UniProtKB/TrEMBL annotation:
Belongs to the glycosyltransferase 7 family. One of its GO terms (molecular function) is metal ion binding. Residues 213-288 form the Galactosyltransferase C-terminal domain. CDD domains: b4GalT. It is found in: Golgi apparatus membrane. It holds the Pfam family Glyco_transf_7N. Pathway: Protein modification; protein glycosylation. This is Beta-1,4-galactosyltransferase.
Amino acid sequence: MVAPGRALFIFFGLQLAIMAVLYHQGYHHQVSYVLKMLTTSVLSTTDTILTVKDVYSGLDQIQPLSPTKEDLPTCPKTSPFVSGPLKVSFPLDITLDDIVQKNPLVQLGGHYQPPNCWALHHTAIIIPYRARRRHLHQLLYHLHPFLQRQQIHYAIYVVHQMDNYTFNRGKLLNVGFKEAMKENNWQCLYFHDVDLIPEDDRNIYDCSAFPMHASVAIDKFQYELPYQTYFGGVMALQPIHYLKINGFPNNYWGWGGEDDDIASRIFLNKMSISRPPAVFGRYHMLKHGHDRGNKANPNRFQLLSRTHLRWRYNGMNNLLYSLLSKEQTPLYTNLTVHFGIDYH
Ligand code: BGN
């Protein structure tokens, strides 16, 4: 009699051998299809074993430890509050006051440090914004506890384009970078669309050796990358890398292309893009109609074809803006900017 464990081992060994032979005989597509099916089913089974939690669950256990900060231990590599898939749901008509009540440890300007250990990660979140109040409230409701689960030191900056010119996401992100770095020596910057809600807290908001594309599986795109070099939605860079590629281009007015441009800048600088596993990098996109002042940019194809010639002269080193106000609100730092008629 063969022990059941051993029989299973032999069975899988045989399957693998058969697939290797088939692959060798030219059945590449069929073999990769079977392998893909197997890995997705294994990953989805492990995912269903993990229970889907409320993003606030367990956070009441985070309490200040000792009275002197010097005595604090370093936070563990893996936070004990990280658990896996999270529920994405919001109370009806959330107000900012409700979110403040639910996040008592968040300080003015949307700053947070774990109260009982020294954080290993120091991350600024930059959100480009115009006229999406409900989405901003929903994102703040979810993102604050999401980041606290990860025991990160963080702050949230909302960069608000306050004029009637066409929306300019790239330029807003450059402003966010500049203003956030004036405030603190952040090690990592997350550039975060207002309508993307992370669905799994194992998607840790820290930086890696290469620029990171976090939103790899968005429900709107059936939880798959729309194309291989897609770098939109939520992405992160270390400051040194952001400056090396000269940040985002400032001259993409309207929808589309600025994310492809920054991806090109990364490749032109001989870096590659890191991505979390697709089961971690899952996002729900909040529904919205057409944004006024953000129609598709007809020049984006031509601009993109010239990135290799222009990236050195267009970005952080020619950024012009007027900062109308910088306001520390209880849940975020609000940077209001005006670009004027500046077509850099
Ligand atoms: C692409 C857009 C991106 C956008 C994604 C996903 C362009 C440039 C022309 C090739 N790029 O097509 O900006 O993030 O779709 O919506 O339009």
